[in-house]
Fold this protein.
Amino acid sequence: MTVFLVGAGPGDPDLLTLKAARLLGQADVVVYDRLVGPDILAMIAPWAERIDVGKNPYGKRTNQTEINRILIDRGAQHETVVRLKGGDPFVFGRGGEEALDLEAAGIDVQVVPGITSSIAGPAAAGIPVTHRGVSSAFTVVTAHQDPTKPGSIDWEALARLNSTLVVLMGATRAARIRARLLSAGMDPTTPVAVVVEATTPRQRQFRLTLADLGDRPIPNPAVIVIGGVAAEPVIANETNPNLAAALHEHRALEGASSWH
Ligand SMILES: C[S@@+](CC[C@H](N)C(=O)[O-])C[C@H]1O[C@@H](n2cnc3c(N)ncnc32)[C@H](O)[C@@H]1O
């Protein structure tokens, strides 16, 4: 009797792990979220019980206490229960809380990591989160956080990092993010890319600068990438003067060694 906390990846069913696909075909029960698409749900065995606990930001949702209760209940009755979450279950997925509650109830828990939208979203738009000569670090933050709670995000520190900032759950808070970063001294011309419904057939992306972030509504779900890497994609048949120049400079310096 095991509850598997499974990452469904960013949307494209081809980005599901082999282990996740195998478990979906075996599970007695699958408890899934809003961001898991129909192509992935189609892999669930026909006999399995499906429970939609989709958290729609504007509509009906199952609260976390109720989700944990469902997981404990099904986990105590069935051999294989899959808790399917968008991206990776431990990246803003509340997977840790669910694991703790299940373990406290004496139920075996395993985690199956998934490809997180915080990396796959930018990548799907041709944006590497790190790129030699442009950014040698990336930070993933949620914009959906109570600033009065302990451990709240230090936007002033983020503004000083001079590397890539990836913001999840930022669609409705874009103007606030801009205000925080600008007041912390970040350059208003800093490139920004917004990738919406990444890796799905409906993917679209927008490029702007920090000064313009929040001026237009951003659809959900979206990943916001802030920093030099957001200037131009390195792939997808688009020219990329900034990154290409940086790459050539570094190759020249390092004797044309390949970049990893
Ligand atoms: C509750 S968080 C879950 C993140 C997830 N665990 C992960 O690792 O990707 C939901 C947020 O992830 C981002 N997101 C998830 N899937 C996405 C996609 N296909 N395209 C763009 N953003 C996505 C959005 O910022 C969305 O608001």
